Amino acid sequence: MVMAEREPIAEGAQLAAVDLGSNSFHMVVARWHRGRAEIVDRLRETVRLGAGVDGEGRLDGQARLRAMSCLARFGQRLRGFEARHVRALATNAVRQLRAPRAFLLPAETALGFPIEVVSGREEARLIYLGVCRDLPARRERRLVIDIGGGSTEFIIGTGREPEQMESVQMGCIATTRRFFADGQISRKRWREALIELELVLQQFAADFRKAGWTRAIGSSGTIKAAAEMIAARDPRAEGIDREHLEELVDRVLRHDRIEALKLRGLSEERRPVILGGLAVLSAAFSALAIERMEVSQSAMREGILLDLVGRLESRDPRAASIEGLAQRFGIDSAQAERVRRVARTLFESVCAEWSLAEEHGEWLDWAARLHEVGLAIAHSQHHVHGAYLLEHADLPGFSREEQRLLATLVRAHRRSVPVAMLAALPERQAEPARRLLVLLRLAVLFCRNRQDEAMPPFELKAHGDRVRLALPKAWLAGRSLTRADLALEREELAAMGIRLEIVDD
């Protein structure tokens, strides 16, 4: 699939990546210099968003206030940035919310830029990408573990390519709340926590051990804090090894309460959640038979930055995901390319009037490439099956909102238009999606005979919600099925507020 070239990143341009974690919010700012993103600024605040989410997925007022205040400060730093040069992603805490848009809408206002939610596996991919930023580009096997506030990500990869990824619902906040919610510390509770955590890890631990690795690397707050406490006790220690970790845990368990913890290297802000974090780390060492772990200073925010650069430089991982899915489900590539070419021709006719950018053209390409993916399940309702696959599959590079947009385009490419599904999209996606659907549906209609035929001379004009399609009278005269399809299409598009006028010249 040929992807159009995007406008290159200008020398000196500023880029930013924002990571809304369950425990802390991070932002890195970089300057584009001689083909590289050089980090020039970092911001971090302990927000503990995950601590404010209850079992029903509701967010308490204090956590919301901390989040909005932090994002407003981040937003001040981002004033003047181009929208395409900023990417902000939310992780586990927002995934757990019952009504995430109720949080995301004011959060986006505070930050000044869109915020997307990523799945646990996409979070793992970005973490691995960020950690490998600081490592040599040689093809060694690496295990990366990142203990966050609400989830922990485990990744095995070769060089800079992740291969096996798992995300489990056990982070420093979640585990502390589950086993030590009242602040009391006891060895009995510690053993109970380890048994349960190791049981969760056993779901994939054998596969990871079989795959193997030559280096184990940890990232984010819990692992950094553990390394700092170990180094404060033994300055000769490098990273975290099993013996030092067990000795650290023993020192922690000599205390009766979390607030009484007084260990060199342990900060005040890390103290309330360190017990849960150490439990996850200890369970990981045991289940995966880790003897020694290096500590990375980079994590997901650096991965988001590198991924952003890839998108801007036409090295978008999403394109590879689209191609991989097409091959996996045996899509008719010739038909997909026919639809893509026609859709692109229509796109070029109206993109100026409809303010559609090259980014929207890429979404149209992807939807055309995958519009028949549901045929792998059944011909009947294949657009519905395809939408389900695209919304729930693991697609590296895509956020949840992006997968939902792609699913909506595929779901609505034929038959009745699911107006409610369109309305559920974020406002920044809904209007472009509506217009892209007009082009996709017409392209599918014109390619119904599944043969290579040149489009007749046509004229497509758009003004707001009015679309005028002029086709040669002689061409239409011999195509009664196309005329009937266009008449039906006029009715279907009317359901989403588009007035289609067919003219035969």
List the helices and strands and how they pair.
Elements: E1 14-20, E2 24-33, E3 36-46, H1 61-77, E4 86-90, H2 92-95, H3 100-111, E5 115-117, H4 120-132, E6 141-147, E7 152-158, E8 161-168, H5 172-180, H6 187-211, E9 215-219, H7 221-233, E10 240-241, H8 242-253, H9 271-287, E11 292-295, H10 300-312, H11 317-328, H12 333-350, H13 358-370, H14 382-392, H15 400-411, H16 419-423, H17 427-446, E12 459-463, E13 466-471, H18 473-477, H19 480-494, E14 499-504
Parallel strand pairs: 1-4, 4-5, 6-9, 9-11, 13-14
Antiparallel strand pairs: 1-2, 2-3, 6-7, 7-8, 10-11, 12-13
Helix pairs in contact: 1-3, 4-10, 5-9, 6-9, 7-9, 8-9, 12-13, 12-17, 13-15, 13-17, 14-15, 17-19
Q: Which fold name corresponds to the CATH topology of the largest domain?
A: Nucleotidyltransferase, domain 5
% residues in beta strands: 15-25%
User: Structural class of the helices, strands and pairings?
Assistant: alpha/beta
Q: How many angstroms separate the termini?
A: 34 Å
Largest sheet: 6 strands, mixed
As residue ranges, the low-confidence spans are none
Q: What's the number of structural domains? A: 3
Shape: elongated
Determine the number of helices (DSSP H or I, runs of at least 4 residues).
Answer: 19
CATH superfamily of the largest domain: Exopolyphosphatase. Domain 2
Instruction: Give the second-level CATH assignment, the architecture of the largest domain.
Output: 2-Layer Sandwich
Radius of gyration: 26 Å
Which strand order spans the largest sheet, edge to edge or round the barrel?
A: 8-7-6-9-11-10
Total strands: the figure is 14
**Mean model confidence by pLDDT:** 95
CATH class descriptor name of the largest domain: Alpha Beta
**Helicity range:** 40-55%
